[in-house]
Amino acid sequence: MAEDHGRYAHEARMEAARNGEAMPDGSYPIRDCGEVGKAVGDYDRTGQDPKVRRHIIKRAVALNCTSNLPDEWEAE
Fold first, then answer.
1. Which of 41, 39, 15, 37 is nearest to 26 (CA)?
2. Under the phi-then-psi rule, with left for phi > 0, alpha for psi from -120 to 50, and beta for the rest, what region is 47?
3. What pLDDT digit, counting tens, does each position of 42-51 carry?
4. Could you tell me the pTM of the whole model?
5. Every domain of the chain and the residues it spans
6. What does the alpha-carbon distance between residue 15 and residue 67 come to, in Å, rounded to a whole number?
């Protein structure tokens, strides 16, 4: 059963990647404003790749959630 859950999670992430809601590898899926804030927190903890930051900003703009971004980030 656990394998099915992992497989579903992987498939859902790949679908989000195809839709532009996640990075090409399925990481950082952002489908709503709440996930913008979670992604920012993950970004701060995991090395701060500029590609990830651009993805988070892009999704925040697309979802009209730029208020969920840190003040020091500028929407590009």
1. 15
2. left
3. 998 887 889 9
4. 0.83
5. 2-68
6. 26
